[in-house]
Every structure is written in C-alpha cells, then in structure tokens.
Amino acid sequence: MADLSRPPVWRYLQEAGFGNAALQLARCWIRDPDTLPFATHIEPHALIRLVQDGLCFDQLQADACHTEPRYRFGRDHGRPFSARNGNLLTLDKGIPAHQLAAEANGALPDPPPKKTLKRKKGKTTNGVELRPEPEVNGDAMDIEHNGTTHVTNSVRAESETIPSEAESPTVAEIPISTLSIGNNAGFQTEVISIADLAPQTVFIPRHLDPGKVVEHTSWGPIDAPVLLAAGRSLLQVHVVSRQTTPEQTPTIRTGDMLLPVNNFDVTALCWHSDDELTVSVREQCFNEVGEKMMMDKLIKLTEGGQVSHIISSTAGLINTLRWNPDRNLLLSISTDGEKGSIKVWKNESDSIPAWTDFTDTAIFDAHWITDSAFVVCGIKLFKVYEVGESLTTQRTLDTSVTWETVKYDPTSGIIAVLGIEDQKGYLGILHPNDSISLQTHELPDDYPTDLDFRIRTSTNTLTNGSSVPSVLLVTCSMLGTVRAWDVNEPFKCVKLLTTSENTQALKIAFSPDGSLLAAAGPDAVTIWDIERRDVPVASWHAREWPSDKWNPSTEGEFSLGWDPDSSRLSIALGNQIAIIPVPRYLGCACDVPSHSYQYTFQPNPNWSSLYAPAPEIQSYLQDVAEKYSATRFIKLRHEIQACHWNDKTAKWHITVKNLATGETLQDQADVLISGRGNLNTPSWPEIDGIETFKGAKMHSATWDQSYDFENKRIGVIGSGSSSIQIVPSLQRLPGTQVSTFVRSKTWISPPFGQQLWDKYGFQTSAIPRELRDRFANDPDYYHKFRLSVEEDGNGIHAVTMKGTELQKGAKDMFHEHMREKLKSKPEIFEALLPSFSPGCRRLTPGPGYLEALTQPNVSFITSPIARMSESAIHTVDGRTHEIDALVCATGFKSSAPPPFPLTGSNGLPLTRKWENRAVTYLSHSVAGFPNLFTMLGPNAAIGSGSLTTMIETVGDYIIKAIRKIQKENIASMVVKEERERDFIEYVDAYFEGTVFADECRSWYKNKGTGEVVGLWPGSTLHCVETMRSPRWEDFEYIYVDELEGTDESRLKGVGKNTNRLAWLGNGWTVKQQEEKDLAWYLYPEFVNKPVAPLPEENEEFKIRPFSY
C-alpha cells in the first residue's frame, strides 16, 4: 500500500465495510498525509489487522456499555465487490478484501453466495399436484409460514442484482406478481408535502477535460446570486435560472473567468462585491533551463471576472482569504505544513502586503471579528491580531489542540473553533466577556467535521415547548450526528439531530435567512427547520441518481453552499455540481390529532404537535417503511404511463418510465393495486385569461419550491382546507399582501381534538417534552391516550346524521367559535356563515385562519372572479386586484380515474367506465377490471373517525383476496356487476339521511349530479366490520386451466377443468417435510380457549362480534 491516507484507500475501506478504519484514515487524509509516519509503506496484511483490531475494540466497548456496535463486519462486508458499482475491490496486489482478512486470520474464505437454489422435484399423487418447496421469485407475494406477507414491486431494472439465498423472498403458494402504484405510502393531506429534494435537482454539465476539477464553490452576494466554481485549471461562474413551475426546465449559463495564468490550481477565493473577487492560485511553470517550478499568485478580478490584475506573484501558498469590507482590507493565510504566514493587503496596486507576521506552527483558518481585528487558528495556535498603524498581537491564548475551523458571530461577539487532537474532537468558545480564556470542551461525537453559527435576535419558543437560544451554534460529525449548542451557556447541547439514514455530514450550514439548517456529505443532504421540529423537513439522496449525474465515490473536495436568498443550495464533489431547490413549507399539517394519524401497529409517542406538520408525518412513514423493510419493494421516481389487462394471459401489462434515466420499461403483474388515493389530481379553476397571467402561478398540490413570497402581493383562490392552512402562513411572511378570493361559504370549526387540549392542559397544540417523554417511557399510559383519541373520533359519527342532538350542538358551537374569532370583522363572519349543516363540506379546523382574515395585510374578497389579466384578478364588482403570485387552493378532482390509460377486460377504459360517476364495490373493486384493487378509491374516505384505520382495513381485505388467488389457482377475479350496483344503491340510500345530502359544494360529491362519491357510507367501525369477512360469492372467477390457449405442459400434468380442490396437495404439510413445529396448534399463542361455563360470554365476542 503506497499511501494509506489517499482518498482511493479511504473509499476502498468504506466499500469493504471497514468503517472504523476508514474514518480514522479519513482524518489523517485531511492534513498533510505525507508527514504521518505510517502513511508511506504498510503491508496489506498489516492493514487488515489494523482494521480488525479497531472492529474488535468497538465490539468490546459495546459489550461493556451494553450498547450496539457502531461498526459491523459481517458476511456482506467481506464480499469482494462494491455495493455501489459492482466492481472488484482490491489492494495494490489485486487481492480481494475478504481473502486478505481470511489470510490474516489463517482461515479459509467463505464460498461465494449462491445464485440459485436447487429444488427437489415434487411428485404427483392421484392427479393432484404436490406443491414444491417455496420458490425464489423476486417479483412475488411472499406468504411465509408465520402468516407474514410481503409485496414486491415488480418494476425491476434488468441490471438489478438477484437477491442472494439469505435475502430472497419465498412463495409458499403459486407465485403471484403484484404491482402497487401510488402517490403516497398510505396517508394523504390536501397540500402535498415535498420532502424529497431530488426531483428538482439541477446538475451543472461535467467537464470533459479530466484535468479540470472543482475544489471550491462559492455563491456570490445577493445582488449577484451566481455560483462560482474554482479548482484545478478551473475558474467558472454558473447562472442557473429559477423554476417558476416544477415542470419548467431551468436554463444554465456558464462563463469562464479570465486569469493570466495557465496550468494552475485555485487554492482560495473570496468575494468583494457582486462583480469583484480575489483568488489565490498556484501556477506550474518552467524556468529558463526547463526546470518545473511553482509560483503562488494573488489575483483580483473585476467586471464579473473579465478583467484581472495580479496583486502579487510571491504571495505564498494561500489556504484562506478573508475580505474586510469596512476598511477594504484583504487577509491571506499561508502555511507550509510546519509554520504559518499572515499577510494583510490594503492596496491592490502594491505587490507586497501592508503588514506581515509569522507563526511557529501551521495556520489553517482565520476570520475578521471587527473592522480592525481578526483571529487565526492552527496547530496548538489561537491568536487575535489588531490592525492599526501596525499589525500587533492583541492576545495569544494557550491551547494544546489543533484548531482547524473558526467561525464568528457578529451579533454576540462570540468566536467558536473546531479542532482535533489524538483522534478526539474539541469545541472552543471565546466569549467577549472573558476574552483571555478559550473555553475548551471535548465533543461527545467522533470525527467532527464542521460548525456554523445562526444569529437570532431573541429567544424563540418552539412547537415542542423548548426554546432556541439567542445565539445558536451547530456542529456535525462524519458519523451523521448534528448537535445544536447554546453558546450563551457554553457546551450546553439543546438539540441532538441525526442525518437522514445516518449518512456522513462533512459540511453544515444555516441558510442565510437563518430558517433552515443543512448538513451534507457525498451521499446525502439533510435539512431541518430546528425552530419547529427535530425531524428533518427535507432530504436529498445520491442513490436516486445514476452515477453519470452524481457519483458519491468520486475523488475530490466536498463543498456545500446556500444561495444568498436561501431558496437553493449547492453541493460539489470532484467535477460534479448539483443545485438543489429547497421548498418552503407553508403550514401543511394534518388537521386531526396526530395520534390518530398513524398505523395501529406502529405507535409514535414523539409527535411534536397534536397536528403534526407534513415533514414529520413523512418522516414517520419513512421510518415505518424502513423498519419493516418495505423499501425493498418501492421504486421511487418511476412514473406509470399505462396499464392494460390481457384477457388471454390474465396479466396486467404496465408501461413505466424511470424518471431518473428516462428509460421506458415494460412489466407485467397478476394483481394491480392502485394506492393513488382519491385526492391527487389537482383541480384548476376555470377562469377566463388565467393562462395570460405572467406572475408566479401554482396549485397547492404542485407547490413551487423556489418561489420567495416575501414582499409580494399574493392572490389565493379557494376556502377549503388547503387555503385555510396556506393563508395564515402567507399572512405571517414579511411584507406580504394577501388577497383571498372566497366563493363558497364554509364552517370553520375549532381544532379537532380540542377536548384533548382541555383534558391535558395544553396551552398550544405543541405537546410538551415531559408528556412526550412519558409517552415513550410508559407504553400503557400512551396506549390509554391513543384509545382516548380514537374513541373520541369514533364517538362523533352522529354529527353526520341529520337532526341528531350532536349535529345541532356542533352547529351552535361552530357558530359561536366563528363569531368570536371574527368579532372585529363581522362582515367576514356573515360572508362565511353557511346555511347548510356542518359536515356537508369537509369540516375545516383552521388554527390561525380566522385571525389572519382580520389582519390589515389580508383582503377578504367575495365578489366572483370575472377574468384574469397579465398582472391582476378582475372581479365582477369592477375592481382590479394587482398580484405578483397566484395560489390556487382549489382542491382536487375527487374519485377521478388516473391520468394514465387504464384498460380493463374487453378493452374497457376506466375513463369510459367512470365517465358519469365513479362506481366500485366496497370502494376497492371495479366490475370489468379483474385483479385490480384500489385503496382510498371512490367512496373510501371517512366523514368522522380514523382514515388510517380504513386504509389498513382495506389493505387486509386485499391481502385475503390475493391469498385466495394464490391458493386456488385463480387466474382472474372480478366483482360481479350486480353486486357493484347493489353497493351503489346502498350508498345513495344511506346518504339521504346524512348532512352530506345538503346543498353545498364539496369534493365529496359528483360534480353536476351531487351523488356522494368520496365518502364511505357509514362509520369507521362500520367499514372495519364490513371488510373483516369477504363475501367471495360476490366475485366471478376464471381459473388458470380455463385460460384460452393454456399450455398443458405449463400446468405440470394438471388437465383442464381439474379438481378445484387441488390445493389440498398430497395430504402432507410443509412443516412435516421440514420436520419442525409438528404440534404448533398447542403453542399458547394459537390456542383459542373457550370461556367456562358459558363460552358465549367471551369478552372478545362482546367487543368484536364473531363474523362468519
């Protein structure tokens, strides 16, 4: 091994699974690796022993502390291939990692993983086929012997690796390919949260010249928000247009800055103004006799980089440049690895600096702290200098730490430094009230990498009840840990965060407006709004892009930066640059108690609010998917373009587009599950001239991530739940003037779950930290709390029925609530107050909405919109409302067919089937569309109660249907048209006695005719009981052997019209073949004991009646 500290070795160790050693060597790589005594020559076997010793120590430490090991070395880590690209990973001698490890231990290497499984051929007894052992089929529904079911998404690229024996799913019955398509993972809000930043990423085209490598990136000042990229033979400026709509393709303009040098490396840079900057370069050139030499030059560029001036040709190897705008001074820091040089330049025409000083140890960073003072740090070095008539040392602080990075907070005057010594990380704080003592604290996280300040003018209360200090400092580590520190009380950690999937955090930075925090590494970017919640609000993952777009294994310096207006951030590695738009979440949250907005089997005790924000809900869903390994079967960024049922083969044929690569794939499945829900196709208002509007235009479901609403005139159309969340959020932004156009009257209810506020004494919707801690530590207490939430929701179903006391009481309560909130604007109260019963339109609790309508920067407009022009909305009353941006919070096309062609039996399109009305059987099956199931389809939502319970219930029903298909050799299963008609007849009869039959505009109803197509005809509990026992006689079946053109050989000896009880097999069970669990029916968990002396008194039957 020539040099352990070089990036290829580090990457190799990461790929081979040697996390601990990789991290240690990474730290060694950062600073002057050639000076390390062990970094020049080492034998491969010694490397392996070093790695194994580190892992062994980690295991011993975990055992002693009763914790999990931080690093693992399992069978996967020893494989001689890369998890990223499949290439062989070898040391210089070409020996795979697992072989080296085996030789070092004197052990034999493990055999390579098997690619296929050999099965014994089953026998046929009495014409009934003996079922083989479970087959390996990656695209299958796996029903294990314990009843666990896995659904795989059969959209698989041909290049994907076949799972190994240990990883492959099995099929206990007939292999069934099941494809689930959807816009969500089972939850829906009317304003779509956008937490995945990948889809809108813009990649700067790579340099074809391998000699040009990006080593530094820097965004220009706010007057010139351009991205500067500098490095090896490279100094370019990139201008990337902002996207006014998600569908718009941004333009990229790139220009070279003119430098009077060739074959150079940019070592540092800093901006002076929007068109002036200074760079330091090291130029490789040759003298008169042909000898290679290096010249270090300091160059100022003006007029946007088109004019350059060499300040000095003997500036030294500069690693840091800092500009002082108050006195027009330029500070440069140089080091040769052993000593440091400090220069201050005050005149660009001078070839020598105005002031110079030298240090006995290397200097790594510097920062101006006043207009006449700056601080420098380095190896056991921390000094403050004063620039007056001369350059003097203001103070030198004793330290034994190597400080690598320094940051300064101008509001408080606090200086923070990050350092490392003996592989331990340290944080140093210098307070202005104690300017002679550098308070040093050992960090609890290994391998700290970066730090940043966020300036706050006052203490702010968070949604979880805690507070952010006036001055906040954050640190990050290579292990993905992010800590927020209150530097007014040094070393008090106020927040502990982790990056998405615990990915590396090499850089960390607050957005310039201080609202968001980003931590990033080559593999991922994680963003938090730490004032509101501890979970990330957005993330970006490299794995969602092909390697020709972003390859995290590329060598080079990694950098992170924010656009000056905080709307975009950039990451760069090697010759790769990605610009990522960052969304602003405007109030999107659930409007029912969060503890009812979760799966029954996965309680979350850590909801920060009774009405959790969308990013928190998305984080919960992602955690659930990862915990139960559902991510194995999910294909993100794949767009369904068409689905067609083939009657001859009894297969669904699906056309899929990979949005990351642009490739179109063809796939097929036995069962198709639509998880699109019924609120996903935006409904745009039909307004004359809307297409001529030249300002920003967006729908609440297709939010423009990059648009800055501050200091804008905004028109909001709509008064539904989306508008009610958006209007108060826009009203609170600086400088906004909001015009809300309200066509429909509506009830604005108090927050759902108000009784919980009263019972637990909540002052706000935030759940106090002490209560969340009790939820987490006392499962029984939290379970009782959840029961209370669910029972309250299920106990108000009578509010949806006409004439009930609960309905009358709700109407009186809502009336008083609205009147009180709008007492300063009674005209708005009269304009909003409806004549229909509460619930006819979706009940909309709107914390802050009614209050926002009374504010001076909100105009409440009820006059109908006549037309739109290039810059305004014109209403029927003759008024013109000038706006800069238009927000259409006008809901969705409820129960609509998907936007892609979906064709059923005999070529019937779903659009024709649902032309006049969307009809189903029990909300999940459609006559004429075999083996198709819908989740949250027509008549699937709920007027009161838990929607997530409905989703789980329908999911269980679908699983039962798939098991029947598998077990009984069914090729096609489709609901009878008569039963579909029966269900719709029942739906219409039920809703006649409900408030939903009142005259009102609602997405619940079929446009034009008024039938209720969005809601389940009953309560949540009614739906649960309905779905518990399927009526299989309501379906028609075609069996595999009845298909036209069935190949006899494919039936393995089973003839047509064979015994429908062939599933009985040969009289044996799989457990007998495996010779285990031969008396499972005596296991306590499977014994259903009757109650003595009267079995019918079983409490279970009283709670949940026995059904079929």
TrEMBL record:
The organism of origin for this protein: Decorospora gaudefroyi
UniProt cross-references to SUPFAM superfamilies, sorted A to Z: FAD/NAD(P)-binding domain, WD40 repeat-like
InterPro entries for the chain: FAD-bind_Monooxygenase_sf, FAD/NAD-bd_sf, Flavin_mOase-like, WD40/YVTN_repeat-like_dom_sf, WD40_repeat_dom_sf, WD40_rpt
Protein name (Swiss-Prot/TrEMBL): FAD/NAD(P)-binding domain-containing protein
Family: Belongs to the FAD-binding monooxygenase family.
Gene Ontology MF: a single term: NADP binding
Pfam families: FMO-like, WD40
Region of interest (Disordered), ranges: 103-146
Keywords assigned: FAD, Flavoprotein, Oxidoreductase
